[in-house]
Amino acid sequence: MVAAHPFRSWPVKLGERVYDLDVDGVEVSDRSRFKIDENALTIALKKHVSATAGSDAHNISEFGWCCTEFLDRIDNVNQLVDALKKQRCKPKLIR
Length: 95
Known about the structure:
With 95 residues, this protein is α/β, with parallel strands linked by helices. The protein contains 2 helices and 5 strands. Strand 2 (25-30), helix 1 (38-47) and strand 3 (50-54) form a beta-alpha-beta unit.
């Protein structure tokens, strides 16, 4: 499980509560801002979990602002989950 946008206020701001959750990753960037959320990155690093990014696009112009780049080839869901759990991915800002 990945904690999505933990410091965004809507719908629920997880913030520091992410430390108490059993997650495999923390989203550190999305379409709402073209930068890395340093607070979220700090949590991912301290928890030793993957830092991810996702466009979370609500319209076509927002698509592809950022993504999660996997270090190995991913052919199925099991490989994706395994890569997240092993921190074999990283956030990538595109635009």
